[in-house]
């Protein structure tokens, strides 16, 4: 149900979306889903890169506190 | 019998009758044969002369009656004129009259003692008397009375003096009316001044002066003639004060204090704005007075609309006027039916890639790495759940800390160029999420912002409250 407030008249209308609006919603939803998936993948890749870097630093003899200070 | 003669000797035989004799002989036949005999004989014997054509009637008319009875009026039928019926009495004295005795008969009777006539009407004026039964009414036309001729001094009215038009009406009680227009000041009633209709009536030695209600106006009252000592306390009410009668000139300085004004007696309708224009307010001038003045221009927020969606798929503000400098959206206690989705903002239904934004966000205290989005189709769309104006929330509103609360400013929203926007929010979905974002809306057409939509990133719904303010 769409909720619309006419600011000039103060009237509030609640109605179902039109076919055109539903089509636009579908496009928006697809774009958001794709962007979110992309963002999640990027976050996951960044997290993996971070973990790898932390492991390599640990292999070099840095303590966890020293690694945490470098990678935060 | 009908009788007749002839002017010569005749020898006529008619209907069994023998009419024979010398001239002048008187013959007779039954009255009923007169017409027939005359029709037959007169044409052939012109000397026929009738002595009497209806002897019975003739004899009847000649009868002298000694007793005539009947019901008055008594009439006599006769073919001969001049018959008279006379009623007389030789035994009753003069003046007696025939009187019905109530049984259908009449008797001679003397006149009653009270009908012997009127003896005490004196004078020559037109006097008329009418008698009805035993009652006699005498009418005397007052128009014909001559002063002093009939009324006796002291009997009626003795105190009317003067030559002004004085009129009197009445019979046993006389009312004397004196037209005030003709009075001479000091002569009669000198306390009644003016031209208003006034009347004086006298009854039993008491004079009454009547003044028509409303006849005394300001022209009859000299200045200062009515002071506070002439007015009973409380006698002057609002009903006695005409509209507009009391102006500032009628009120002495300090005469109207707060004690003279009842609580709530002066409403807004009683305050005249004079030449003040719409929107002006009463303003103290620092010298003890007030005047209408235009409020000083300055910043301020005006609540334009409030949306309270409940499980709405989209929330829209439409027909936004261009009367302000900026727009501000404030939302509180907004939650979605999904804990991982968001609502982003789109302007003027523009789904082109005109939105760029960047900011910082944190999930559960950890800052996110992706803080910039270019060429998006709405503020926060493709950065759903982290940079969106309404980011991840709980799925119920029972705990305010788990809902989205934030605000968005859209600057110079009537500008035809780029529009800047900033927004911040804090919410709680699958993890606590807060963000602070700055964005640019760069439409291809430079129309002012007249519509704002909160659009979902998936199929969830939104519940909560969103305010739209105009900022000056």
Task: Itemize the secondary structure elements and their pairings.
The complex is a heterodimer of chains A (72) and B (472).
Chain A: E1 2-6, E2 12-15, H1 19-59, H2 64-70
Antiparallel strand pairs in A: 1-2
Chain B: E1 2-5, E2 10-14, E3 17-21, E4 27-29, H1 34-41, E5 49-52, H2 55-61, E6 97-100, E7 106-109, E8 127-132, E9 135-140, E10 166-169, E11 175-178, E12 198-203, E13 206-211, E14 281-284, E15 290-293, E16 301-307, E17 314-318, E18 326-336, E19 343-347, E20 355-363, E21 366-367, E22 372-376, E23 404-410, E24 419-428, E25 432-441, E26 452-456, E27 462-471
Antiparallel strand pairs in B: 1-4, 1-5, 2-3, 6-7, 8-9, 10-11, 12-13, 14-15, 16-27, 17-26, 18-23, 18-27, 19-26, 20-21, 20-22, 20-25, 23-24, 24-25
Please supply descriptive tags for the structure shown above.
heterodimer; A: 72 residues; alpha+beta; two-stranded antiparallel ribbon; 2 helices; 67% helix; 12% strand; B: 472 residues; mainly beta; nine-stranded antiparallel sheet; 27 strands
Write up this protein.
The complex is a heterodimer of chains A (72) and B (472). Chain A starts with a strand and ends with a helix. The longest helix of chain A has 41 residues, at 19-59. Chain A has 72 residues and is an alpha+beta fold. Chain A has helices at residues 19-59, 64-70, and strands at residues 2-6, 12-15. Helix content of chain B is 3%, strand content 33%. The interface between A and B is medium-sized, with 29 and 37 residues.
How large is the share of residues in beta strands of chain B? 25-35%
Low-pLDDT windows of residues of chain A: none
Rounded mean pLDDT score of chain B = 78
Helix-residue proportion of chain A:
55-70%
Write down the Rg of chain A.
Answer: 24 Å
What structural class do you assign from the helix and strand content of chain B? mainly beta
What best-fitting shape of chain A do the alpha-carbon axes yield? elongated
Put simply, the count of helices of chain B is: 2
Give, in order, the helices and strands of chain A.
EEHH
Helix content of chain B: under 10%
Summing up helix and strand content along with how strands pair, one would put the structural category of chain A as: alpha+beta
> Main sheet of chain B, how many strands, which sense, barrel?
9 strands, antiparallel
Spatial shape of chain B: elongated
Oligomer: heterodimer
Secondary structure tally: strands of chain A: 2
| β-sheet strand percentage of chain A | 5-15%
The most extensive interface, with participating residues per chain, is: A-B, 29 and 37 residues
Order of helices and strands of chain B: EEEEHEHEEEEEEEEEEEEEEEEEEEEEE
Which parts of chain B are unreliable, with pLDDT below 50 for 5 consecutive residues or more?
152-156, 183-196
